[in-house]
Amino acid sequence: MPYSVMADTVLIFHLAFIMFVMFGALLVLKRWVWLWLHLPAVAWGMAVEFLHLYCPLTPLENSLRIKAGIAGYEGDFIGHYLIALIYPAGLTPQVQIGIGALVLIVNLLAYAQVISRWRVRRRAA
Q1: How far apart are CA 116 and CA 113, in angstroms?
Q2: What is the pLDDT of residue 56?
Q3: Residues of the chain where predicted confidence (pLDDT) is lower than 70
């Protein structure tokens, strides 16, 4: 039972990390200190998608599930949990590149707003 709870905790953390990568720039709009956590997270998220890397959280979750007596799964987190909800055909390299591009575009737009606000504040000072 504890391994199952730990696996679910890793799953929740993994999802929270993905959400932070996608939308963390909104936190930067409120407090620029988030920038120091968000930019490395975005870099990692895009590297995972563009270079088809495995996030270390996926094998950790799988090993905890196996220790709990629950079958692990093949592939990565996005392919197993998220893509199945959005794309019934499954995860392909083209879809991964699309996800990486979406992360890049969302964050470029958000950071353009961050820079714009920073410039306005700098001029006002």
Answers
A1: 5
A2: 85
A3: 1, 72-91
Residue 40 to residue 25: CA distance in whole angstroms? 12
Question: Residue 24, Cβ neighbours under 10 Å: how many?
Answer: 22
Q: To which residue do tokens 């392909």 refer?
A: 92
Q: What is the pLDDT of residue 96?
A: 77
pTM over 0.85: no
Judge contact between 38 and 82, C-beta under 8 A: no
Look at residue 87 in the predicted model and tell me its pLDDT.
Answer: 47
How far apart CA 117 and CA 69 sit, in angstroms, is: 51
pLDDT digits (tens, 9 = 90+) for 55-78: 888 888 888 888 888 776 666 555
DSSP 8-class letter at 80 = I
Contacts of 56-63 spanning 24+ positions with Cβ under 8 A:
57/10, 57/13, 57/14, 57/17, 58/14, 60/10, 61/7, 61/10, 61/11, 61/14
